[in-house]
Here is the input.
Amino acid sequence: MKKMLVVAGLGAAVGYLFGTEQGRAKLARFTDRAKRMAGDPEVQQKVSDMAGQVKSNADKLPDPVSGVVKTAADQVQSKLDHPELR
Here is the structure.
């Protein structure tokens, strides 16, 4: 029953965001803010620093997990180094 209520609530939220003019306007404002924040050099530097820390600490993880974590950190770093890939 709880699961059905959660799904119904999410459906209503998605319907509001995409189905009403006010919802689309709020979604557009949110998207614009997110893009501005992602393009902020300070935010990009912090993300880059975190990716480096994750990659350096990945060696402490078991082998299969370590490889996946390093690959993910490399992908984040690559997207920061080449913004046209975003």
